[in-house]
From TrEMBL:
One of its GO terms (molecular function) is oxidoreductase activity. PANTHER family: DEHYDROGENASES, SHORT CHAIN, ESTRADIOL 17-BETA-DEHYDROGENASE 8-RELATED. It comes from Herbiconiux oxytropis. Belongs to the short-chain dehydrogenases/reductases (SDR) family. Pfam families: adh_short_C2 (PF13561). This is SDR family oxidoreductase. Keywords: Oxidoreductase. InterPro entries: NAD(P)-bd_dom_sf, Sc_DH/Rdtase_CS, SDR_fam.
Length: 288
């Protein structure tokens, strides 16, 4: 069988999935992306985990053995996730919070410390995303929303987590950027500005906190969410063009693509990796 043929790829996928094809399988049967115990003993905070990519990340981290504090502004969806994960045996706690509130970061990190007695990882995934519009139509309120839920929240959570990461002997922070900022994309002025601010913050933190054995990396994803489902329904032509522009010709999966990368970045498999921006976008994604 030739490497790279459809049959070879399918065989590899079945093998990776522990002899279970994911086609038609329910989520409970899915493999542990990366390896099942890679996060055992680690207490991790994931923001924006009630839906979308954050929920996918939380599920993958749980499968790999992490203890989780999930948080989001959407209290009901968050509770649904917590109940589901608890029923699958995850040590998971939740705290509903609006990251724009001044005390949110401290409350979230303190809750994680109270429940687990340590914090080893922080995933700053949450961000409020508004529909695209031309720069001249965006308001200062739009800009403030992007900044307050993006870099400002990331900054506050990183600072709140820092003493706990130091006491744990080090840890890993995963922040979220976007190609809309790194390469630039019309319609995303406030969002793109906020996302690039997160990358700048992450680079400086990685340099300053390296001596504390705290690693800081940025993930720039392209993955299916409720938002991309809506995009596909309302503008299938644009959605399909975007997916076709991806070299791997598909949209990513929040659990097996983005979750797996985040899990790796939080694990001891990546202890020499810091200050990096990593696209998990099927080969698309350029920084200017
Ligand atoms: N989906 C993609 O393809 C894509 C592409 C590039 C970058 N990203 C980035 O990846 C991350 C996840 O994206 P997504 O598509 O899953 O987004 P999403 O909008 O589906 O989810 C974001 C989560 O953040 C939460 N949130 C929003 N405002 C909040 C607030 N004030 N306080 C607390 N929580 C709040 C939301 O409730 C939601 O659960 C984001 O940082 C996003 O910018 C996603």
């Amino acid at each position: 069988m030739k490497e790279g043929t459809g049959t070879a790829r399918k065989a590899l996928w079945v093998d990776l999935a522990s002899n279970k094809s994911t086609e038609g399988a329910n989520r409970k049967e899915l493999m542990s992306y990366t390896h099942p115990k890679s996060l055992e003993g680690k207490a991790v905070v994931v923001t924006g985990s009630a839906r979308g990519i954050g929920r996918g990340i939380a599920r993958t981290l749980a499968r790999n053995g992490a203890r989780l504090l999930v948080t989001d502004i959407l209290a009901d969806d968050l509770e649904t996730l917590r109940e589901d994960m608890t029923s699958h045996g995850t040590d998971v706690h939740s705290i509903a919070a609006d990251l724009r509130e001044p005390d949110a970061a401290e409350r979230i990190i303190e809750e994680a410390y109270r429940k687990f007695g340590a914090v080893h990882g922080l995933v700053n995934n949450a961000m409020a995303i508004k529909p695209p519009s031309p720069l001249e139509c965006q308001t200062l309120a739009d800009f403030d929303l992007a900044i307050s839920t993006g870099p400002r929240a990331t900054f506050a959570l990183m600072k709140a987590a820092y003493p706990h990461l130091v006491s744990a002997g080090g840890g890993s922070i995963v922040n979220f950027g976007s190609g809309a900022g790194a390469a630039g994309e019309p319609g995303f002025a406030s969002y793109g500005a906020a996302k690039e601010s997160i990358r700048g913050l992450s680079r400086v933190a990685a340099l300053e906190w390296g001596a504390d054995n705290i690693r800081v990396n940025v993930v720039l994803p392209f993955a299916r969410t409720e938002g991309t489902d809506y995009w596909e329904q309302t503008d299938p032509e644009a959605f399909n063009a975007a997916v076709n522009a991806v070299p791997l010709k598909r949209i990513g999966d929040s659990e097996k693509d983005v979750g797996a990368l985040v899990s790796f970045l939080l694990s001891d498999d990546s202890t020499y990796l810091t200050a990096q921006s990593i696209f998990v976008a099927g080969g698309s994604g350029v920084s200017r």
